[in-house]
Specification:
There is one protein chain. With 648 residues, the chain is mainly beta. The chain folds into six domains: 95 residues, no CATH class; 95 residues, no CATH class; 97 residues, no CATH class; 97 residues, no CATH class; 93 residues, no CATH class; 98 residues, no CATH class. Helices cover 4% and strands 39% of the residues. The protein contains seven helices and 53 strands. A six-stranded antiparallel beta sheet has the order 12-19-14-15-16-17. It has a six-stranded antiparallel beta sheet with strand order 28-36-30-31-32-33. The chain is elongated, with a radius of gyration of 26 Å.
């Protein structure tokens, strides 16, 4: 009987000769926000989106300067651009986008897409049923239908005439089928029965009327078609990855919008109540709700910093309070795309990267690997050790929290100043980049079953148990939480199977575990006692055990050599240990500084102390890590109780 290879829980249905392999789709294979620096020389952009065989759209914009938006798609061909901020026809420039590849695209020397010393962004949409489709057609001047391959009822359709000047026509499901929007201006929704022929799209066709904007005789057109809550993604094939909806402005911050998932990209437009620009925000450039790095689809303007929206575990909160995105009683439409990755990682190296570097006292960019980072934990090692500080993408670059302190979050304009596509940039501050300092950064990527982050605000009164949604996809076994805007300690919660029930630790102290806080969790939510203060903003970092990648566990000390089996095959690259039955520091080892058979330097997360070298407390062990017989009581006391986090 033949065998069918399986990868994950839903790779195959049935067994043997009756097996049916079902394709599993993930948003990270269909959409990418990619940041790059212009060089004026040819570049290849590798975002792991297959455009050459699957088809799709690349939308680029200069962030630094007032340069047009440029859109290229596989239906019309390379070098042929359109601009959302104007009415011009299709334009050909052989030095712009020069190739669609199986892992992204290539660009030429044109300043339109590759201006020297400028920062640019690209958004790539791959064609895929229930996500995105591209259709080209020739107009006939009469009411008609156009076939599409979206496989679901479109949530929004954007049409542009390519052979001559014309507005960009926008259909959105939140408006009547007699209404339309124009992408290249800020006008509110207008009524015109000749645009969509007063007909709602179906899962196989959309309709156009007689208006020349969408259907002039012999005119040529391209249509970009977006799905809405159509499922089709994830292991079960039922997860939504794109939503086209609307909300009513309240004039207050926050104004929550529920999607059922955390978004990574938003396009927002005021449609009833007045004019409004088309706001484009994404998590790669910063979508924190304060000073969001915003571009406008209808303007060639450089990136600006208005308050727009911040992502939540189940949607987004509109944080602007003015007419642009949140005037009381006005109506706004949006297109939202789900945050990735959706795929469970199989390698620790894809989600955790420890890096050492030497500070230069000015600014520098630190490369960490091939994946965008979500959390960076930085500690000066020597000769001038500093407090270990945490920065993360969800709270926003420059927002620093000290793991040795109860102090509130601070803004450090000279600390970690930006997250790049594959690392981060630091300013002149000592801990992050002191001249001549030896520094380590522990760099984490959010991924299902490995690591997630949640930000929320405590209620204004009534200290009752609180439940928070998360996107870890499994039960979190380790939660580290801290109040952001008020003084308060770092609280560490672990699953009862590891620490025992109703016990917790403080990350910023050496204290033993103590009772007094409840913690329960499911694959989508976790519940705790009231933590922190009324109206306090909070951040929580959630970790889980993932076979072959990470292990949250406990052990009992022996005072002798002790091997900790984490289920790894090439040993741990990161080890965090804390004694729980008595006082003890939070010890950290990593492969960037050395986990070897000899001496291994360690740092303490709860201390400003310099790195300690010349000790041999943790050694290599292929299945996890080994604790040596020379380790002190804080790591291996006989009969002592310890918890750990290890990453392969």
């Amino acid at each position: 009987m033949p065998l069918v290879q399986t990868r994950g829980a839903a790779s195959a249905q049935g067994f043997g000769e009756f097996a049916q392999v079902t394709a599993v789709n993930y948003i990270e294979e269909m959409f990418s926000t990619f940041l790059y620096a212009g060089t004026g020389a040819t570049q290849t952009i590798t975002n792991n989106i297959d455009l050459s065989t699957k088809g799709g759209l690349v939308w680029t914009k200069n962030r630094t300067n007032a340069v047009e938006h440029f859109l290229y798609d596989t239906a019309r061909g390379v070098t042929k651009s359109l601009s959302t901020n104007d009415t011009t026809s299709e334009y050909t420039n052989v030095n712009t986008l020069t190739a669609f590849t199986s892992t992204g695209f290539s660009i030429g020397t044109s300043a339109y897409v590759n201006q020297t010393s400028a920062n640019l962004v690209s958004w790539t949409f791959r064609e895929q049923p229930k996500f995105f489709d591209i259709v080209t057609y020739t107009g006939n001047g009469a009411n008609r239908t156009i076939a599409h391959s979206l496989g679901s009822v479109p949530g929004s359709i954007i049409v542009k005439r390519t052979d001559t000047t014309a507005d960009w026509a926008v259909y959105h499901r939140s408006l009547a089928n007699t209404q339309y929007l124009v992408l290249n201006n800020d006008a509110a929704a207008a009524t015109g029965a000749t645009w969509w022929n007063s007909t709602t799209p179906t899962s196989s066709v959309f309709s156009v009327g007689t208006d020349a904007t969408v259907n002039a005789s012999a005119g040529t057109y391209v249509a970009y078609i977006f799905a809405h809550d159509a499922g089709g993604f994830g292991l079960t094939g039922t997860d939504n990855v794109i939503s086209c909806g609307s909300y009513t402005g309240t004039g207050t911050n926050p104004n929550p919008v529920t999607l059922g998932y955390e978004p990574q990209w938003l396009l927002i437009k005021r449609v009833v109540g007045g004019t409004g620009n088309w706001h484009l925000v994404d998590i790669m450039r910063g979508m924190t709700g304060t000073d969001d790095r915003t571009l406008f689809a209808n303007l060639d303007a450089a990136e600006s910093l208005p308050n727009v929206a911040r992502a939540t575990a189940t949607g987004f909160e509109v944080t602007g309070t003015g007419a642009a995105v949140n005037f009381s009683g006005n109506t706004y439409i949006y297109i939202a795309i789900r945050r990735g990755p959706m795929k469970v990682p199989t390698l620790g190296t894809s989600v955790f990267m420890p890096v050492t570097y030497t500070g230069n006292g000015t600014t520098q960019t630190v490369a960490s690997g091939n994946a965008p980072l979500d959390l960076v934990w930085i500690k000066g090692r020597s000769p001038d050790p500093e407090n270990p500080r945490i920065y993360d993408r969800l709270r926003g670059a420059t927002k620093s929290i000290d793991s040795t302190s109860t102090a509130a979050e601070t803004t450090r304009a000279d600390g970690l100043t930006a997250f790049t596509q594959t690392g981060f940039t630091v300013g002149s501050f000592g801990n992050e980049n002191g001249s001549g300092s030896n520094i380590v950064s522990w760099n984490f990527c959010r991924a299902p079953s490995f690591f997630d982050e949640v930000c929320y605000t405590n209620p204004p009164s009534s200290p009752v148990d609180q439940t928070h949604s998360h996107n870890l996809g499994v039960v979190p076994t380790l939660v580290i939480t801290k109040g952001r805007n008020q003084v308060g300690g770092w609280i560490v919660l672990l699953d009862s199977s590891i620490l025992g029930s109703v016990k917790y630790l403080y990350l910023d102290t050496t204290d033993a575990a103590a009772p007094g806080i409840t913690y329960t969790a499911t694959t989508t939510q976790y519940t705790t006692s009231f933590l922190g203060n009324y109206n306090e903003t909070q951040v929580a970092y959630l970790f889980a055990t993932l076979a072959g990648v990470s292990k949250v566990g406990s052990y009992t000390g022996t005072g002798t050599t002790l091997q900790i089996n984490c289920g790894f095959t090439a040993g741990a690259r990161f080890v965090l240990i804390k004694r729980t039955d008595s006082t003890g520091d939070w010890y950290v080892w990593d492969s960037a500084r050395g986990i070897v058979a000899g001496n291994d330097p360690y740092l303490l997360l709860n201390s400003t102390a310099a790195e300690v070298t010349g000790t041999d407390y943790v050694d290599t062990y292929s299945a996890g890590f080994e604790i040596s017989s020379t380790a002190p009581a804080a790591i291996n006391a006989s009969a002592g109780s310890f918890i750990f986090l290890a990453i392969a």
